[in-house]
Amino acid sequence: MKKLSTKIWTVIVAFLAITILFMYVLTDFLYEGLYVKDAEDSMVEVGEKLSTIYNGGKVTDEFIQKIDEYNDYSNINVFAVRNPRELSACVPFDIDYDTLIGADERQQLLEGKTITKKGYEKRFDRQVISAIIPLTDQKRLEGIIYIYFPLAKITEMASKEVFILLGSAAIFIVLIGFGVFKGIKHIMKPLKELQNAAEKMAVGNYETRVEVKSKDEIGELAQTFNKMATSIQREDEAQKQFLATVSHELRTPISYVKGYGEALQNGYIEESQRQETLSLIVREANRLEKLTNELLQLSRAVNQTESGPLYPLPLAETLREVVTITEQKAYLKSISLRTDIDEDIIINANEEKIKQIMINLIENGLRYSKEGTEIILSSKRKENMAIITVQDHGIGIPAEDLPHITERFYRVNKARSRSDGGSGLGLSIVDQLVKYHKGTWHIDSELGNGTKVTIQIPLIKEI
Ligand code: ADP
Asked: Is the pTM of this model over 0.70?
């Protein structure tokens, strides 16, 4: 694994290398483009101005003399000769006439054009630029003005400055390196802290948090990490609480079954009470079965991956089946089940889960209603939603309990609902299953007057 700090270093070093290369190219360009070109231009300018003194005809000694005088006072080297071969006598280095003025050059000179040359000169150990300005009369080359100028080396041009520049560059690089080192350490510190915190979380220390020190992306990451840790911790605590409640809920019926079973086995129960004791054991065993079934339903409702798919479902048919299933219980409690069902509603749903929702709600209605009352099950459509309601005229729910009744194992009257067979899981299951159908629901209830549960589930989209 390549460390992030290594990557940052690589980028910075690459950036510095490119900058240095760029500076080198730029310096070379400035030397060539400005200094050399400037020297060449001023040489040609001087040469061409001097050539205007020449009035045609033979190049006179007087002209040569004038040019010599100019040479003495000026900082450039300039000579006038009648024959280019005489140049060797004037300049302090060897001139090969044939390479200096070949056939092409001669032609250009005859046309009155100035020639410039640049080449290395051993004698000076540097580049020398030269200009040859023709002195022509009636297409005859009567002589030339020769100017040469040994170019300063780039290092000489600014020898002192170059050292200052190099020195400052070195200090600059050291300072930058130190700054970058500190900067990377500063950036990496919170990341390292985040890594440590994540490792602690991974082994179950959910109370771990990191300090948010900045408002940048790393600060935001730390904030998100803390939010994530808080919700994991909350979920973990809820899970632990749930497990504790589950084991508590299971323990009561188990201890009944075990206690009375052992008492029967050991002959501690009198003959006259045996039947009653057996009924008690069966009732508690039934409660155990119901509880485990509901726990399973809840875990399936929460775990969406285990949930079945959604498909177009004719709601009326499903509601009628639910009525058939619950009719018997209603009959036994002398409660009438009335329906007001819209026949044309089709929702996107899972049949088993819709049945589960409705059975839980109707059974609650039956459980918490007095004999002789009625429960109304209705369905209608409103805009793109199916509205399903279950209304009873039972004992109702106190207002202070309403916000809690979807919590797992929450019961309004613990002793009462336990003896009624309630586990406190029914509405949690409803809540999860409605959410699974992308629906919403709410309860309206008045103590002593009854309860109305309203569910909204999206209709299938018409194509
Ligand atoms: P339970 O299995 O105990 O009925 P639920 O989750 O279905 O659990 O309901 C939670 C609590 O809400 C119940 O204990 C009960 O007190 C109250 N409750 C639910 N439905 C009704 C209702 N239709 N009428 C009165 N109280 C209700």
From this structure: no
Name the more confident of 139 and 236.
236
Cβ–Cβ under 8 Å, residues 198 and 225: yes
Q: Examine the pLDDT at 102 and tell me if it is beyond 90.
A: no
Residue 395, SS3? Answer: coil
326 Cβ closer than 6 Å to some ligand 1 atom = no
20 inside domain: yes
Query: Confidence band (pLDDT; 50, 70, 90) for 417?
Result: low
Task: Mark which of 142, 157, 172 sits at the end of a domain.
Answer: 157
What is the per-residue pLDDT across 179-234, written as a single tens digit (0 to 9) for each?
888 888 888 888 899 999 999 999 999 999 999 888 888 889 999 999 999 999 99
**Residues whose CB falls within 8 Å of the CB of residue 289, separated by 6 or more in sequence, listed in order:** none
Domain hosting 51: range is 4-157
Among 77-81, 200-204, 240-244, 420-424, the range with the most confident prediction by mean pLDDT is 200-204
Q: Mean pLDDT across the stretch 357-367? A: 95
Question: Could you tell me the pLDDT band of residue 3, with boundaries at 50, 70 and 90?
Answer: confident
Atom of ligand 1 nearest to the CA of 414: 14
Into how many domains does the chain fold? 2
Q: Is the beta carbon of 411 within 6 A of some atom in ligand 1?
A: yes
Among 397, 413, 442, name the best residue to mutate to test ligand 1's pocket (greatest count of ligand atoms within 8 A of Cβ).
Answer: 397
User: Is residue 224 in a domain?
Assistant: no
- Any idea what the CATH number is for the domain that residue 100 is in? 3.30.450
Ligand 1 contacts CB of residue 391 (under 6 A): no
Is the distance from the beta carbon of residue 412 to the nearest atom of ligand 1 less than 6 Å? yes
Centre of ligand 1 to C-alpha 398, Å, is 11
Residue 230 and residue 146: Cα distance in Å, rounded?
89
Beta strand 126-137 with 311-314: parallel, antiparallel or unpaired? Answer: unpaired
Query: Which residue, judged by its Cα, is nearest atom 2 of ligand 1?
Result: 422
Residue 43 near residue 129, CB atoms below 8 Å: yes
Kindly list the distances between the CA atom of residue 31 and the CA atoms of 160, 168, 372, in Å, as whole numbers in the listed order. Answer: 16, 21, 109
Please identify, among 104, 124, 157, the residue that sits at the C-terminal boundary of a domain. 157
Q: Could you tell me if the CB of 452 is within 6 A of ligand 1?
A: no
Q: Is the pLDDT of residue 368 over 70?
A: yes
Q: Is 329 exposed, middle or buried (0-12, 13-18, 19+ CB in 10 A)?
A: middle
Ligand 1 in contact with 256 (CB < 6 A)?
Answer: no
